Each structure stands twice: as C-alpha cells, then as structure tokens.
Amino acid sequence: MTYQSQRTKILAYVAMMTTFIIILGLFPGIPIGFIPVPIVLQNMGIMMAGELLGPRYGFLSVTTFLLLVLAGLPLLSGGRGGASVFVSPSAGYIISWLFVPLIIGYLLKSFQAHQSWWVECLIVIIGGVIFVDILGVLWLSWQTGMPLGLALKSSLVFIPGDLIKVILSVTIIRQIRIRNAVVQHLN
Length: 187
Ligand code: BTN
Known about the structure:
The chain has a single domain (3-181), classed as Arp2/3 complex 21 kDa subunit ARPC3. The chain starts with a helix and ends with a helix.
C-alpha cells in the first residue's frame, strides 16, 4: 500500500470515528437529579478514538467533533451545541475529552498495552474515566459552587456505567484491530 493511500484510509477512519461519536449523541443523556451532568454514551466513543486511532489521529477526530459542537451544531447528547456548553456544568468533562485520546494513545504505545486485555482496560480507565472525572468534578464544583467533596461523591454515580463502557470499547476495538491492518500500527 502506498503512503498516500495509507494516509487517505487513516483520514477516512478519523472521519468515521467522528461520525460514530456523533451517532452516540443521538442517544439522549440520562439526567440524574442530584448532579447537573447527564449519563451519556458519547464518552465511550471518545475512549474508542484513542484506542483505535492512537494519540494523534484520535485527537484529530475528537477535536473535529468538539469544533463542530463549538460551531453550534447540536451534536452533544440530547441535541445540544454552541459555545455555551463549554461553560456549562459539564464543560470540564467535555474539555477533558480533548486529551483522552492523547493519554490513552500514548499509554497504549508506551506499555505495548494492546498485548493484554487487562492492561488495556486499565489504561482506558486511567485516561477515559479517572482523568475525565477529575477534570469534570473540579470544574463542576467551581462552576456551580457545589462543595468539592460532594461533587466527587456525586460523580461516583458514573463509575459503574463507565466501567461497562471501558469493557465494551476495549473488547470491540481489539477485535477491529485484529482484522484491520491499517489501524494496527497506529498504536
Ligand atoms: C454533555 O453535557 O453532554 C457532556 C456530558 C459529560 C458526561 C460525563 S462523561 C463522564 C461521565 N460519564 C457519564 O456517563 N457522564 C459523565
């Protein structure tokens, strides 16, 4: 395969990943009364971008998605978009998504983690759950005035669902990687 056709294929995967994140947004978020941040499916697509495309191309697909949201397209769960979501209570989570593919992608590369399902899950938990929650909770507490401890405790409600998303995403992406030579060398 020539360099040019390899690059075209990778960019097609970047576009597909952005589209997949947008499709996950068609599932409306589940509001949770005691914290103004919904349970969503879209964060699973963000994790997958880093797992499948590696740091650079994963970052490119998530950046494209967030720029479309910033431009006003209603692509976040429940059909929200525009600059205001970047200062809303969930803005810390949304902005953290930018860095998720970088963290997951570089950790996967450094530890050759795709060799083990468990290590790969652990890395996705670090980059896609713990990092996102820390940034999300810090912003939530600052923006709403909710005490930090309470914000942290409330955000634990996301953990069971997010762990299921980690298991699903790692299992699916490993299958795609086995079958697809183009993405194999990206991480
Ligand atoms: C948005 O306003 O659409 C962004 C929502 C951010 C939701 C965060 S992502 C991590 C955690 N897991 C969830 O299911 N929801 C929160």
